[in-house]
Amino acid sequence: MEEMDRYYQILSLKSGASKEEVIEAYKDLLMKWHAYYKSHDTETIEIMAKEMLENVEEAYIKLMFFIERSEKVLK
């Protein structure tokens, strides 16, 4: 479960956030970091923004899989 907690943290969410909260956080962070990446020219910031976008993407995919699998088990 520590891995899932890390993903919630990446998306700035509390553990156990709803599917809708995960989607909203993902969209917000994607827009934020994509805009940040596009508005700065330094190589260091470009690398940092790309890394953050990759982390956000990974967290979103893993959490959505986890939540959807949990929903199926509860049905």
Quaternary assembly: single chain
What count of domains describes the coordinates?
1
How many DSSP helices? 3
- CATH architectural name: Orthogonal Bundle
CATH topology: Helix Hairpins
Integer average pLDDT: 87
Please identify which CATH superfamily we are dealing with: DnaJ domain
Summarize the structure in words.
- The protein is mainly alpha-helical and 75 residues long.
- It has a single domain, classed as DnaJ domain (Helix Hairpins), CATH 1.10.287.110.
- Helix 1 packs across helix 3.
Question: What secondary-structure arrangement, pairings included, does this model have?
Answer:
Layout: H1 2-10, H2 19-39, H3 43-74
Helix pairs in contact: 1-3, 2-3
Short description:
The protein is mainly α. 83% of the residues lie in helices and 0% in strands.
Structural key phrases:
83% helix, Helix Hairpins, mainly alpha, elongated, single chain, 75 residues, 3 helices
